[in-house]
Amino acid sequence: MGKRGHINPLLQFAKRLSSKGLKATIATTHYTLSSISSPLITVELISDGFDEGGFAQAQSEELFLDSFKSNGSRTLTQLINNHKTTKDPITFVVYNSFLPWALEVAKENGILGGPFFTNSAAVTAIFSRIYGGLLRLPLRLEDCPVVIPGVPPLNFEDLPSFLNAPGSHPAYLKMKLNQFSNLDKADWIFSNTFHSLEYEVVKGTWEKWPAKLIGPMVPSAYLDGRIGGDEGYGASLWKPLDDACTKWLDTKPPNSVVYISFGSMVSLTQQEMEEIAWGLQDSGFYFLWVVKDSERYKLPKGFLDLATQNQEKGMIVSWCNQLEMLAHGSVGCFVTHCGWNSTLEGLSLGVGVPKWADQLTDAKFIADVMNEGNMGLEIKKNARKWKELARESISEGGSSDKAIDEFVMSLNNGHVQ
Question: How far apart are CA 36 and CA 234, in angstroms?
Fold first, then answer.
């Protein structure tokens, strides 16, 4: 899949395995190949059938996924066969859980396999229940709250929005549910979360989803520092800017900047963009806002002119290194779409990650979070707590580190030559 939220954690997992003595290879498509670079791992090609432009070239989710299944199965089989006679034959396929056909390929070739879930355990539990028939679609208001062990009761507005209209995104829903289609054949199940954060959720779904918690898959430099030089994922689908963002942040006081980024896939309406823009201006806080070039036209002209002419108060950029931004001392608030990768990055780097909702555009909310009021202090305290727990989980002897060691040991004890 050509989305950073899926590529980055898998790439990071490959680096973790490599650092523990395994040979790790990332199999990726032609379109994303040039965006991946890491000295710790090998990168090999498979095909999704759209080698020139990836998903954008397909222009249909269903067409893309069907093509990826047929072409991906064929080319992954070729890759496994090519390695059979080398000194490093492929013995285990870890695959993005959205691509369950990869497990079929592994089994057909007599090797082990297991899915890597990039979503939170809570989101996975929701779709696991739908797949198992415990939650029926379309979801109605009277079906709520939905109760999942380890998760606060979920009201209608807390659930993925298309569940009340499953026909609106049929290919996406099918992809979500297909994650569980052959789970009983998997040798291991990996989840990019950690014990302190979501163990209660996983415990409640253990029968259907016995996952090993191995996260957070964030570059080592921001957590335990045990992988030398691991300061970035090594994958970017966009051309980086120079260090203008960092230089600008260097001029701001500690915890004074609101950093806004809604991920690579989220597209806001013009009204939402306008509300955020004027909310930021009225708040009086410094801000750094990542807006894709294709979305800039939605910004109010007056606001864009102000931000362009006077970068003292705020900066609008088309791309910046999110990890560096979150790690920078002047960033005090992270406004996000709450994609799981961004959430884990925010937790791991100790930046408050508010939930994305319409109220977030209200300048008063931003002011409450960043001022030294009770709410602001509480959020900062929690951010520090989760940063420490994330670091502990992946450090030597931590819960995630032990789970990864268990996997490495199982391969070394009979499955790796």
Answer: 6
Residues 52 and 156: their CA atoms lie apart, in Å, by 40
Residue 417 lies in a domain: no
Distance (Å, whole) CA 367 – CA 229: 37
The residue-averaged pLDDT of 143-158 equals 86
**Could you tell me if 69 and 201 lie in one domain?**
yes
Q: Is the pLDDT of residue 417 over 50?
A: no
Stronger pLDDT, 383 or 328, i.e. the higher one = 328
Q: Which residue has the higher pLDDT, 97 or 152?
A: 97
Determine, yes or no, domain membership for 284.
Answer: yes
| Residue of higher predicted confidence among 237 and 40 | 40
d(CA 106, CA 112): 6
In total, how many domains does the chain have? 2
Instruction: Name which residue leads in pLDDT, 196 or 236.
Output: 196
The answer to whether residue 182 sits within a structural domain is yes
State both tokens at 103: 């497990």
34 and 183 in a single domain? The answer is: yes
Return contacts of 224-228, CB within 8 angstroms, 24+ apart. 224/391, 224/394, 224/395, 224/396, 226/19, 226/395, 226/396, 227/15, 227/16, 227/19, 227/40
Range(s) of the domain holding residue 296: 244-392
Q: Across residues 56-67, what is the average pLDDT?
A: 86
194, burial (CB in 10 Å: exposed 0-12, middle 13-18, buried 19+):
buried
User: Within 13 Å, how many C-alpha atoms sit on residue 145's CB side?
Assistant: 9
Task: Tell me the C-alpha to C-alpha distance, in Å, between residue 207 and each of 191, 210, 342, 346, 404.
Answer: 15, 6, 29, 31, 21
Enter the tokens of residue 102. 């990869």
CATH number at residue 97: 3.40.50.2000
In a domain, 205, yes or no: yes
